[in-house]
Amino acid sequence: MSSILLFSFVIGYFLLLLVVAYYTSRNSNNDSFFIGNRNSNWMLVAFGMVGTSLSGVTFVSVPGTVGDYTAGTFKAFGYFQVVIGYFIGYFVIAFVLLPLYYKMNLTSIYNYLQNRFGNISYKTGALFFIISRTVGATARLYLVIFVLQEFILESIGIPFIVTAFIILLMILLYTFEGGVKTIVYTDTLQTTFMLLGLIVCVVYILSSLDLSLGAAMQTLSDKGYTQIFNTDIKSGGFFLKQIVGGMFITIAMTGLDQEMMQKNISVKTLKNSQKNMMTFNVIIVIVNFLFLLLGGLLYLYMLNQGAEYQQVATPDGATKWAFLSNNENIIGDRLFPSVALQLFPQAIAIIFIIALISALFPSADGALTALTSSFCIDILGVKRREDLTEAQRKKIRLTVHLSFAVIFMICILIFHQIASRSIIDKILDLAGYTYGPLLGLFAFGILTTRKLPETYLVVAICLVAPVLCFFLKVNAMDWFNGYQIGIELLLINGLLTFLGLLTISKKPEPVN
């Protein structure tokens, strides 16, 4: 298919977003940017959050994991263990964290840490959010930019750095004024296109293979693609680790994340915000299952086209399993785009590209807006400073917004140098390191009544805990008789932070 034709659809889609941004950002102000004037429709927020939560990583990477053959077995539907944990975690967010945020009427959720412990803990929490979301968002953004570059723009001579710059410029332009007020609507539009692409691809493959849904599930089961639960207790994929880890990943990456909570607390009432969270919870489980189903169907489709598994040599002289089509390894992140853009009919390929772009923007635009909000409110304190006029606050916000776009660009170029074939596992690993201190700080505040001193020991503890976790993860198999640390790394990190804070904390002074 013509790369220029596909790229024209990308540009057309972007122009549509600009039109939406123009109409939604009229008469906007700083409160519109930060929290949508607390007037967002809960149904739109719930639906739009699906796109933000899933992102391009789920769209591209999750299907590719199904047929990934490692350690003598397929990963199959093992990712659904994590999804079960997500489901539990969203209940904790809805009925523990959201009531807390609404009770305190927060614009930034990290103001909770300020009220509970003081400025140093507050700024430490905000700083770890900024690091976490910057790394996570740019990793997700990199993956989709890589797909666009590899399958469309490379053939027309556009360098990767130019592709990354254009995509970031697009995101910057439509979030510059409206912020959350605009994103609530653009995310709804983008989630619609992303889910449409998912459903169309599933239906097309079922039709091509002449399979009903039931027959497809049976075929996938016969090939070993549908196994969910891993019962090897030493494995990083052991089901209890995955479920508990998934629960805490959700609590940290959604409930303690300004980007995700910024949209939730933009809903007018707590009750509607909880409706949003529970609606979103059900949808996210169904959609993740559909992505795993799509992954299995993609492998069946390619096997039907003559692809096969082979062991191939690696540069270090070892061997690994590859899934080869025309002598090209398309396992992991390359699977879905390779099939959609090279083998599917032109109409389906166009739908794939629109869906892919729709998966890209929600995770990036929300992150850019949330990072701007957090830095302005939590680090610079623009809402607290009475010496600033509304115009000066806006100027600071726009400068910070542009600065984070530049930081995103730098991070994307770094990922371009170091990224591996399947990035979703890397994102979950990174989350374990960067969100752990946030989990420890909030858990200490909610589960104890003890006070923290205004000391930089708080910062030191939050920095040391991830470092200890790194050495623990690297050496776990040697130290613990073959035990592999997986997604539970986040929980360990949070626990180490919690214990460190406990050692420097004080009992609250008695009330007379």
Structure report:
This protein has helices at 3-24, 30-35, 42-65, 79-103, 111-117, 119-153, 160-175, 180-208, 213-222, 239-255, 258-264, 270-304, 335-342, 346-379, 390-418, 424-434, 436-447, 457-479, 489-504; strands at 69-70, 73-74, 308-313, 319-325, 328-329. The protein is mainly α. It has a single domain (3-419), classed as Sodium/glucose cotransporter. The strands form two sheets. Strands 3-4-5 form a three-stranded antiparallel β-sheet, with no helix packed on it. It has a two-stranded antiparallel sheet with strand order 1-2. The longest helix has 35 residues, at 119-153.
Q: Which superfamily, in CATH terms, is the homologous superfamily? A: Sodium/glucose cotransporter
Major β-sheet annotation: 3 strands, antiparallel
Strand content: under 5%
Uncertain residue ranges: 32-37
Order of helices and strands: HHHEEHHHHHHHHHEEEHHHHHHH
CATH architecture: Up-down Bundle
Task: Tell me the overall shape.
Answer: globular
Oligomer classification: single chain
End-to-end span in angstroms? 77 Å
Radius of gyration of CA atoms, rounded to a whole number: 23 Å
Strand order of the largest sheet: 3-4-5
> What is the number of strand segments?
5
Q: In which range does the helix fraction lie?
A: over 70%
**Rounded mean pLDDT score:** 84
